[in-house]
Specification:
This is Interferon-induced protein 44-like. This protein is of the alpha/beta class. It is built from eight helices and eight strands.
Length: about 290
C-alpha cells in the first residue's frame, strides 16, 4: 500500500509495471467518480486529506493547480506558485478544496506546506511535516525552518480530528534534477516517508517536469512517457533514492505557461490522482478510519 520497495531493472519489468493509459480524460473522470463513492460510507469524514511536500521548486503548488485545471476544463489557479532565489513561495500551512466545472466540491482536499531546503536551516523542518501528518498544525500556521512547532505553541492541535489528519503522503520530485539531490534533502524526505509508513499512511511520488530537459521524445509528445527509457531510468533513480516501488511513482507534467488544457497532461494528472484514491481506499478499508 504505497510502502513496499522493489527495484526492477529491465525494460521488460518496467513495461509490465506500467499501464498504457487511455488518453481520454473524460473516461478517467468517470472512473474517479466511481472510485470516490467509497467516501459515502464514512459519515464522520467528508473529505480525505492529501499532503503535498517536496523540494523547493518541485511543483507542489503547480500540481494542485493542475488538478484544478483538469477538473475545471480551463487553466485554473488558486495556490500561489513560484520561487524566489531558491526560497519556498509557500510559507504557511494551507488546505485547498477541488471544485469541478459543475461547482461540485470533490471529497478530498490538498494540504500544501513550505518546500524542503538543501540545508538543515533551509525550508520546512521535517518535524513540521510530521506534525501535519498527525493533524497537529492549525490552518494558516507560518512555518519556521529552524524551529518546528511544539505542543506549547497556540498553533499546535492537541486533539486532532480525523479530518485534520493526512490520509496520503505525496512527495513531489522534479525529474530533471533528481540525480542532483543532496544527501541532506534525501535524508529529510526519507525521514518523512518513514514517519508516514509508521502511521500506516500510503506514500506516493509525483515525478514532475518530465518534459523539461529529460527526454526529447516526451517533450514533443507526452504519450511517449511510458515508452521512454530515460523516463524509466529517472523513475528507477527516484525509487532507489526515496524508497517507494515503481508502482507508486507517477510521471506528470504540470500546467505552467499554457492557456488551454491539454488531454495528455490531464490524463497523466488524473491517472496519478486515481492511484492516490486507490491507496486511500485501501487505507480506510484496513481500519484506519
Amino acid at each position: 500500500m504505497g510502502g513496499k520497495k522493489s527495484k526492477p531493472e529491465s525494460r521488460e519489468d518496467f513495461e509490465q509495471l506500467l499501464r498504457i493509459p487511455d488518453w481520454n480524460p473524460s473516461n478517467l473522470k468517470s472512473e474517479l467518480s466511481e472510485q470516490l463513492k467509497f467516501m459515502e460510507n464514512h459519515q464522520d469524514i467528508r473529505q480525505f486529506r492529501i499532503l503535498l511536500h517536496g523540494p523547493v521548486g518541485a511543483g507542489k503548488s503547480s500540481f494542485l493547480n493542475s488538478v484544478r485545471s483538469a477538473y475545471k476544463g480551463i487553466i485554473a489557479f488558486g495556490a500561489a506558485e513560484g520561487t524566489s532565489a531558491g526560497e519556498s513561495y509557500t510559507k504557511r500551512y494551507k488546505t485547498y478544496k477541488i471544485i469541478d466545472k459543475d461547482s461540485v466540491t470533490l471529497p478530498f482536499v490538498f494540504s500544501d506546506v513550505m518546500g524542503l531546503g538543501d540545508n538543515k536551516e533551509d525550508g520546512i523542518h521535517p518535524d513540521d511535516i510530521i506534525n501535519v501528518l498527525h493533524g497537529r498544525v492549525k490552518e494558516g500556521y507560518k512555518f519556521n525552518p529552524v524551529s518546528p512547532l511544539t505542543d506549547a505553541d497556540p498553533n499546535y492541535v492537541h486533539e486532532p480530528s480525523l479530518k485534520n489528519k493526512v490520509h496520503c503522503l505525496v512527495s513531489v520530485v522534479p525529474a530533471n534534477s533528481i540525480s542532483l539531490m543532496k544527501t541532506e534533502m534525501i535524508q529529510k524526505m526519507q525521514t518523512v516517508r518513514n514517519a508516514a509508513l509508521d502511521l500506516g499512511i500510503p506514500h506516493v511520488v509525483l515525478m514532475t517536469k518530465i518534459d523539461d530537459g529529460v527526454c526529447p521524445l516526451v517533450r514533443k509528445d507526452l504519450a511517449e512517457v511510458y515508452k521512454s527509457r530515460k523516463i524509466q531510468k529517472k523513475m528507477q533513480r527516484c525509487s532507489h533514492t526515496i524508497g517507494p516501488s515503481l508502482e507508486c511513482i507517477f510521471p506528470v507534467s504540470n500546467y505552467h505557461e499554457e492557456t488551454e488544457v491539454d488531454d495528455k497532461k490531464d490524463v497523466l494528472i488524473l491517472s496519478a490522482l486515481k492511484a492516490i484514491v486507490g491507496f486511500v481506499t485501501d487505507y480506510f478499508e484496513e481500519g484506519n478510519i
